[in-house]
Design a protein that fits this description.
Blueprint (H helix, E strand, L loop, with lengths): L47 E13 L7 E6 L8 E4 L3 E8 L9 E3 L20 E7 L6 E6 L6 H6 L4 E6 L12 E8 L12 H6 L5 E4 L6 E6 L1 E9 L6 E4 L4 E7 L2 E9 L1 E4 L4 E8 L3 E8 L17 E11 L21 E14 L2 E8 L11 E4 L4 E7 L5 E5 L5 E7 L2 E4 L8 E4 L3 E7 L5 E7 L2 H5 L3 E7 L1
Bound molecules: CU-O-CU linkage and copper (II) ion (2 copies).
Length: about 475
């Protein structure tokens, strides 16, 4: 484990980072990878998914002999997995049982009406219940997730445990069922010596909170057994506040088949993948050699301010034991997965420039994170757009660290990245709702909102979102 030197900011009312992140607390490794429990559908009507989700304090046992107070959905962290189909109607009654705090459920990446999307402007106060209701349109099959989005408390509610997966499945899936469908949701846990989850420090606010243990489905380095020659479909979710995951699967070969907004047009073979906070990927992994294969992290320079830079390479997230015997032969992956229509030419061009600067904040001197020189204001509309109009967004990172940029309510297509005058067009067409904008980089993307209302756009390092790197687009009819 990595001891991050603390900074004393107690004079500013902020807790210092704990000097020792509890090197004595060992998390159990090597348990069988668990399936996330499904949220049960309480409706018997065809095409209707109705259920209840409650956010509330709960207790988890991550390490031997200590109890960790967490926040959980229906007692679980990660929350229960929601699985529904294109065309379904969704009705979720959400109860906020977090004492004294607002919360919401935001349906990250999903095409839901603005007033059902859990915006900070629509808090569910402590003790209250509200219904989120929306329809899943044709073509919306993808790997989404949900998390709280209350004003000023999103980062904390997420690192305390609130996040869940929402799978929208198509009626006909081109990926062979023999590959299975395995969810791997990554979260990032920091534990103090007494088992509690420490508050964010000044360093966390600056860089985004990076924990001590990257968990997969709530487990540290779980194990999966597969027969020789197996192909497996994995859905990867980065549900961490701020951890960049550059992933490598050893001797197993990885093929990307989908991104945030669902399947690609055709599979793309890769050696490693970068999964920024909030991004998702669908992979097909082939296990063609017997023995142990590890899903590991590689070094990635995402920019870090001050001391305590985490050593993020060489973490083993998952161990796969490939048997020496083959099972039934695997059907091949189709060469075509689906068609993705081009968005066409933009009629509007917009620029969003990210900057960071030190200044006076609510808790003393703190880092401010800005888009077009302003910090988030819930009462201000930053951009007005029109339903159905294609826009070209140019997102320019003039700051010293990477900022994963996310837009609510729709999926976009990344056109190109530009750095030091060198333009790299996207190698393939894909639907995304979050794209990493590396330090010094410009990303151009095409986007169209199909539903009216107020939508957030922000950096998905949740501490940066909290410190101002967020804006509002009003989509009008
Ligand atoms: Cu997952 Cu506004 O974000
Ligand atoms: Cu979102
Ligand atoms: Cu950021």
């Amino acid at each position: 484990m990595n001891a991050m030197p603390g900074m004393d900011h107690s004079a500013h009312g902020m807790p210092a980072h704990p000097a020792k992140p509890a090197a004595s607390l060992m998390l159990k490794e090597g348990e069988a990878l668990r399936d996330l429990p499904r949220l049960a559908n309480e409706s018997t009507d065809a095409g209707l998914f109705r259920a209840r989700l409650a956010a509330a304090p709960a207790t988890a046992r991550f390490a031997e002999g200590v109890e960790t107070p967490v926040l959980a959905y229906n007692g679980m962290s990660p929350g229960p997995l929601i699985e529904a189909f294109e065309g379904d109607r969704i009705e979720i009654d959400f109860t906020n049982d977090i004492p004294g705090e607002d919360s919401t459920i935001h349906w990250h990446g999903m095409p839901v009406p603005a007033d059902q999307d859990g915006n900070p402007m629509d808090p569910v106060v402590a003790g209250a219940t509200r219904r989120y209701a929306f329809d899943l349109p044709a073509g919306s099959a993808a790997s989404y997730w949900f998390h709280p989005h209350p004003h000023g408390r999103t980062a904390e509610q997420v690192y305390r445990g609130l996040a869940g997966i929402f799978l929208v499945k198509p009626k006909a899936d081109p990926v062979p069922a023999a590959y299975g469908d395995t969810v791997l949701v990554f979260t990032d846990l920091r534990l103090a010596a007494d088992g509690s989850i420490p508050e964010n420090s000044m360093m966390d606010l600056m860089n985004g909170r990076v924990g001590d243990h990257v968990l997969v489905n709530g487990q540290k380095n779980p194990v999966l057994d597969v027969p020789l020659g197996a192909k497996r479909r994995f859905r990867l979710f980065n549900a961490t506040n701020a951890r960049f995951l550059k992933l490598f699967f050893g001797a197993a070969t990885m093929t990307v088949i989908g991104t945030d907004g669902g399947l690609l047009e055709a599979p793309v073979a890769v050696g490693d993948v970068l999964l920024a906070p909030a991004e998702r990927l669908e992979l097909v992994v082939s296990f063609d050699r017997p023995g142990e294969v590890k899903l590991e992290t590689l070094a990635y320079e995402r920019g870090w301010m001050g001391p305590g830079k985490p050593d993020d390479s060489g973490l083993t997230l998952l161990t796969v034991n490939v048997a020496s015997e083959a099972d039934e032969p695997m059907p091949p992956l189709p060469e075509k997965l689906r068609a993705i229509a081009a968005l066409g030419n933009a009629t509007i061009n917009r620029r969003f420039v990210f900057t960071e600067k030190m200044g006076m904040g609510a808790s003393g001197m703190e880092m401010g994170f800005f888009i077009n020189d302003v910090a988030f204001d819930m009462k201000r509309v930053d951009v007005t757009a029109r339903v159905g109009e294609v826009e070209l967004w140019e997102v320019i990172n003039k700051a010293d660290m990477d900022h994963p940029f996310h837009v609510h309510g729709t999926q976009f297509q990344v056109v190109e990245h530009e750095r030091d005058g060198k333009v790299s067009p996207s190698a393939y067409r894909a639907w995304k709702d979050t794209v990493n904008v590396a330090k010094g980089e410009t990303v151009r993307l095409l986007l169209k909102q199909d539903l009216p209302g107020l939508r957030m756009y922000h950096c998905h390092i949740l501490e940066h979102e909290q410190l101002g790197m967020m804006g509002i687009v009003d989509v009008t009819v």
